[in-house]
Design a protein that fits this description.
Layout (H helix, E strand, L loop, with lengths): L2 H11 L4 H8 L3 H8 L8 H11 L3 H5 L1 H8 L1 H11 L3 H22 L1
Protein backbone atom coordinates (compact mmCIF):
# COMPACT_ATOMS: atom_id res chain seq x y z
CA UNK A 1 0.00 0.00 0.00
CA UNK A 2 1.39 3.42 -0.86
CA UNK A 3 1.99 5.97 1.87
CA UNK A 4 -0.92 8.22 0.87
CA UNK A 5 -3.44 5.39 1.13
CA UNK A 6 -1.92 4.34 4.44
CA UNK A 7 -2.27 7.88 5.82
CA UNK A 8 -5.88 8.12 4.63
CA UNK A 9 -6.78 4.72 6.07
CA UNK A 10 -5.25 5.57 9.44
CA UNK A 11 -6.89 9.00 9.46
CA UNK A 12 -10.32 7.52 8.69
CA UNK A 13 -9.81 4.72 11.21
CA UNK A 14 -9.11 7.36 13.88
CA UNK A 15 -12.16 9.37 12.78
CA UNK A 16 -10.10 12.45 11.89
CA UNK A 17 -10.82 15.04 9.22
CA UNK A 18 -8.01 16.47 7.11
CA UNK A 19 -8.22 19.65 9.18
CA UNK A 20 -7.97 17.76 12.47
CA UNK A 21 -4.94 15.78 11.29
CA UNK A 22 -3.40 19.02 10.07
CA UNK A 23 -3.86 20.66 13.46
CA UNK A 24 -2.44 17.64 15.28
CA UNK A 25 0.55 17.23 12.98
CA UNK A 26 1.41 20.72 11.78
CA UNK A 27 1.22 19.54 8.15
CA UNK A 28 -1.10 21.58 5.93
CA UNK A 29 -4.45 20.01 4.99
CA UNK A 30 -3.67 20.65 1.32
CA UNK A 31 -0.41 18.70 1.51
CA UNK A 32 -2.08 15.83 3.38
CA UNK A 33 -4.82 15.75 0.74
CA UNK A 34 -2.24 15.65 -2.05
CA UNK A 35 -0.47 12.76 -0.31
CA UNK A 36 -3.69 10.85 0.18
CA UNK A 37 -4.72 11.31 -3.46
CA UNK A 38 -1.31 10.25 -4.74
CA UNK A 39 -0.20 13.61 -6.13
CA UNK A 40 2.73 13.66 -3.70
CA UNK A 41 4.65 10.40 -3.49
CA UNK A 42 7.76 11.09 -1.44
CA UNK A 43 7.14 13.06 1.76
CA UNK A 44 10.23 13.87 3.79
CA UNK A 45 11.04 11.95 6.93
CA UNK A 46 10.19 15.08 8.93
CA UNK A 47 6.68 15.18 7.42
CA UNK A 48 6.22 11.45 8.05
CA UNK A 49 7.23 11.90 11.69
CA UNK A 50 4.74 14.76 12.11
CA UNK A 51 1.95 12.75 10.52
CA UNK A 52 2.74 9.70 12.65
CA UNK A 53 2.55 11.89 15.76
CA UNK A 54 -0.73 13.42 14.58
CA UNK A 55 -2.15 9.96 13.89
CA UNK A 56 -0.85 8.71 17.25
CA UNK A 57 1.07 5.84 15.67
CA UNK A 58 4.76 5.09 15.61
CA UNK A 59 6.71 5.84 12.46
CA UNK A 60 7.22 2.18 11.60
CA UNK A 61 3.46 1.61 11.69
CA UNK A 62 2.93 4.51 9.32
CA UNK A 63 5.71 3.56 6.93
CA UNK A 64 4.88 -0.13 7.07
CA UNK A 65 6.73 -3.38 6.93
CA UNK A 66 8.79 -2.31 3.92
CA UNK A 67 11.07 -0.20 6.10
CA UNK A 68 11.41 -2.94 8.70
CA UNK A 69 12.43 -5.41 5.99
CA UNK A 70 14.89 -2.92 4.51
CA UNK A 71 16.57 -2.44 7.87
CA UNK A 72 17.37 -6.14 7.96
CA UNK A 73 19.53 -5.70 4.88
CA UNK A 74 23.09 -4.91 5.98
CA UNK A 75 23.74 -2.53 3.09
CA UNK A 76 20.67 -0.56 4.05
CA UNK A 77 21.87 -0.35 7.64
CA UNK A 78 25.17 1.08 6.44
CA UNK A 79 23.38 3.62 4.26
CA UNK A 80 21.10 4.66 7.12
CA UNK A 81 24.08 5.12 9.44
CA UNK A 82 25.85 7.23 6.83
CA UNK A 83 22.70 9.31 6.24
CA UNK A 84 22.47 10.05 9.96
CA UNK A 85 25.84 11.78 9.74
CA UNK A 86 24.85 14.12 6.89
CA UNK A 87 23.85 17.74 7.30
CA UNK A 88 20.29 18.80 6.57
CA UNK A 89 21.38 20.30 3.24
CA UNK A 90 23.25 17.11 2.30
CA UNK A 91 20.19 15.02 3.20
CA UNK A 92 18.00 17.19 0.99
CA UNK A 93 20.47 16.78 -1.87
CA UNK A 94 20.54 13.02 -1.34
CA UNK A 95 16.75 12.93 -1.32
CA UNK A 96 16.66 14.82 -4.64
CA UNK A 97 19.18 12.39 -6.11
CA UNK A 98 17.14 9.39 -5.00
CA UNK A 99 13.99 10.90 -6.49
CA UNK A 100 15.81 11.41 -9.79
CA UNK A 101 17.00 7.80 -9.77
CA UNK A 102 13.44 6.58 -9.08
CA UNK A 103 12.11 8.67 -11.97
CA UNK A 104 14.72 7.27 -14.34
CA UNK A 105 13.92 3.73 -13.16
CA UNK A 106 10.21 4.38 -13.67
CA UNK A 107 10.85 5.59 -17.22
CA UNK A 108 12.99 2.53 -17.97
CA UNK A 109 10.20 0.25 -16.74
CA UNK A 110 7.60 1.87 -19.03
Amino acid sequence: MDIGKKIKNLRKKKGLTLQELSQRSGVSPGYISMLERGFKKSPTLDVLKKLAKGLEVNLSELIGEELVNLEKDERTKLLLRAANELSKLDLESLEQLLRAIRELKKKEDE
